[in-house]
Records
---
Amino acid sequence: MTEAGGASAPRNRLAVAGARATTEAMLRNQPRGDVIRNTVFAGLLLLAVVIALAGLLALILQALTKGSSVISPDLVNNPPSTAFPDKAGYRPAIIGSLQLIAGVLLFIVPVGVGAALYLEEYADKSRWWNTVIEVNIQNLAAVPSIIYGILGLAFIVRGPLDLGFILVAGSLTLALLVLPMVIIASREALRAVPDSIRQGSLALGATEWQTIRRQVLPAAIPGIATGIILAVSRAIGETAPLLLVGATVFITFDPTPFGSDGYSAMPVQIFNYALRPQEEFQALAAAGIIVMLVVLLAMNSFAIWLRNRYEQRW
Amino acid sequence: MLQAESKRYGERAIKWLLTLCALLSVLTTTAIIISLIGPTIGFFEIVPGSEFFFSFDWTPQFEPPSFGVLGVVAGTVNVVIWSMLVAIPLGLATAVYLSEYASPRARKTIKPVLEVLTGIPTVAIGFFAVSFILPEIIVPLWPGQFLGGANGKPFMALAASLGIALMVVPIIASLSDDAMRAVPRGLHDGAYALGATKVKVATRVIFPAALSGIVASVVLAISRAVGETMIVLLAAGNTPNPTLNPVESVQVMTSYIATTATGDIATGSIDYKSVFAVGAVLFVMTLIMNVVSIRLVHRYREVYE
């Protein structure tokens, strides 16, 4: 439309305005019943949106009002304590969560991107086994997290891997839980790269892997990064599977990856404080939730901004 | 066809490495199934299937214990039904609003906000459900002694239901909105050209055309609700209670697993095996729902894309 240029642009605008005015004048003569029905329906829809957003906003506000009194450096510097709730904090839980996430990243970035590359760039889609892999990944993304806890308990902590109740076992369990998210997001990012780019590169004599590494992957990085950030944020907030693979609650020392004395994680510690009815512990739980929400909402906002910003239109 | 002069072993090795990554997902599923099956078989050597599948008595801690899984399945059904009664209308209304009514600017703010909010950890929602929704919303609004009354109860199924509703509304809204926006513009414009009102276009044209995607989003939401652990663990109490009464305290499948299988449970004990038997039931239930949802999504993708 912009190429129209010159004298025709104002004339076009005039014509559009005229057409719009005529249509609006005609629509104004709708039967009264229709007008009322339209308004009521739109009102109901808006009400639903407001309720949904208000509920989630109330959650954030409630955590803030309940927990703000205990927000202090002690909260992140001190270990938990049942005897002195006014001095209790989240230190081992925060350190535990950071180590858990480091392990998750080490696992999901190569494996998740690798699986997506295979499915998008190498797999022959007409073969049945590739369909099986695909449906299987979609299903794994929706398997309840507690089932991953059972898997971790039976397969990683005990059974074949037999690692015991150590932090690495928790990390591996979380990694398996969020891996499908990374694969699905990376595949979408790879699919968005047009075939002409691949063909151009191959036609110039690049090998398949050179094409993927130098052309396809760089173009898909924003989408892949979004998927990884969202997956990590899910892993940070996940509690249920960790309860099964040995995240204990009252450790007062800093956990280590292979230490057999136990480890803790942020959401598990929040859960434990939340179970205690005393006001002090409830405030501690709320303060922990604030800390987590700040981190997670910042990560998610960044991920979604990244996706919308770099969503390339080829 | 031209062949490369060298054998390109590096290229082949990379391909195999990537294949291994993809196979790991199949391995995960296999491992889940294997780890569930072994102890579950052991469980049925002790507890008869007739008791497990047809009894409502779930009292593993009693002497003699009784393992009627319907006792905890009923708890799950209780929590899920009430949460869906709230979440489905709210989620679908939000989706219709986003895809048909919202101005592009409103849509551009509301949709990302909803997507960001899906990242709220469930332990935070559970805390909110038990310390705010229950005392500040349910108790004051509950009509007197209806169904036994809500006063003075520290836990109830309904608090967990509303928490779960809060969790799945953004999921239903976002996925249904995608489905409705995948309906070709022509259907939409055609209906308007025939003189249909906005309500009619939204409810009689777009909604039915996107139905398979919408149903898929609802089924996925139900599957998420069935598998949700932390909200129920914090808000629904933890007493096995086969009832659909929303103001009672209930135990559900996931909360039984989470409270029983913590840390020092003895491998091989009947409690340990019962965790896997309940886990197997949960896995099969969610698997069926996930497969239905995946197939429905494929269907609308095939029709419109």
---
Amino acid sequence: MSFETLVALRYLAASRRRAHVALISTISMLGLAVGVAALIISLSLLSGFQDRIRAQMAERSPHLRVSPARGPILADPDRVREALAALNGAVAVEPAIEGRGWASGSGLESTLPIRYRNGPAGELAAPPGSGPPPARVSSAVATRTRTAPGDVLRVTSSRTRLSPLGPLPVTVVFRIAEIRHAAVLEKTPDIEVPENAARLLSGLPSGARAYEARLANPARAELAARAVSILLGPGYRVQTWRELNAPLSFALRLEKGVIFATVALVIVVAALNIVSNIALTVVEKKRDLGVLTSLGATPGSLARIYLTLGAVIGALGTTLGVLVGVSASLFLDRYEIVTLPADVYLLTHVPFAVHPREVAFVAAFALATAVAAAALPARAAARLAPGEAIRLSR
Amino acid sequence: MLAIKAESLSKTYMGEAAPVTVFQNLDFDLEESVFAGVRGPSGVGKSTLLHLLGGIDRPDAGRVEIFGVSLADLSARDRARFRNERIGFVFQFHHLLPEFTAEENVAFPHRIAGVSARDARRRAGELLDRVGLADRRSHLSRSLSGGEQQRVAIARALARGPSLLLADEPTGNLDSESARGVFDLLTELHRERGMTTVLVTHNPELAKRCDKIFDMSREGILPATRFSG
């Protein structure tokens, strides 16, 4: 242990005997602990919600999508399909057949521009017997076309076909099988239809605009994307589910950043306490600083005494804050303490998720802030005139 | 070689209302291995002189050379190292660090020099033995008597084996018996170690026992008068 650390620790231990310093030390330590705990709990709360949104995102969107770098359709769709199917961990590979058109309900009173695409194979099976093919529509489309499950929806493609009467738009009638609720920023098509209907609407009897794959482990999407890119070479655009949902991912990150910046202010306020605590010790121990200088201590080592003091107070406060924050988050999540009305939120309780990386970041931030706070009085200690400190302390 | 060569020293402090000039154009030389006493009325700058000689304060003008080394020419770091190795300070009010034991206080100069904690403690223990405080090693400095505290302070000043000892009224705060004991210890150690010692004192009895005595006044520091040793 260096002599600077020895002096810092002894000052902190001895402050118990000086009531006012002890009180301020305790307040600055507790202040930091409260800030750290608040930050960990807020981030855990946010992570709890965001983890669910991300899980939904990973569940609903394809994990990999290969589209042509230029042009509307894939030049060699079979090669792309084989490349994706050959991936380690690929669960399903499907073509994406999509386009734009207009949707209207049975009344034809309102026509709505929409995006359509083929739904996952097997999910939109035609009902037994004849009748219109099934479609899954977004809640926004259902509301604006005034349709409900079981109703008929007419989708007119932007593509035309030539008839004896001239070019006619291609129209397919669907029966609404399901209405889907999506998050605001989620990038889902307005209408999902069976593959053959999508091919009819887009005039693409074979091939595809893109191929999409689902993976057993969505977390490995980036790795898989690199492998596919290398395999296919240039001319293709390979996107992961994170890239496909970039606006939502960005919004989630932004939300976390804003919460961090706001709650971190508590830590900054606690750091101001540390400044006053250490400044008080510098004033009280002015004579000691002069004496240490007379014994050969450099201004730098005097500063280090107070930086160490700040770091020790910071470490104690941070440790306490991390313990309280993490255990409170785990407790709130485990025992589902904060309940939610299930019909409004689709969740019965507020979820908390503790991410070790975030906890480590908060701890590092708090510690760095404490040391930075100590830097100001430490500089003053280093600049002290030792002769004067001894002369005035007679 | 001169142990101390101080030329044209001037020092002014910023007082509360106006600047206070402590002394101007003060010269002071001292040969090696001399036990010198400095006496004079309060406020003439005896302590300030010691601080300037020890490099813990800077003169506004003039220069100080200790064993041929000009303090002003050293960087802050080198000056600190020079103080650690060559100069020992004893103050009137002992100025021990109250949170530390006698042994820890004496070990500080070694710890500052980078000596390991264990080695520093061993050396500090030996010095405390020498000043007669072997049984007080682990006592907190504030639990010691005035005389004992000053002995610990002397041990601390001598920890690194300095060539120059600057003692600022080390007996000024002690009863006459303790004062004599501390003075005897200082003179013994001075002879044992062949140091140069500058001692500020108000006590005429003790002053007489110095090799050389200097009288300091507003006009400056009077030429040395030799006393019988």
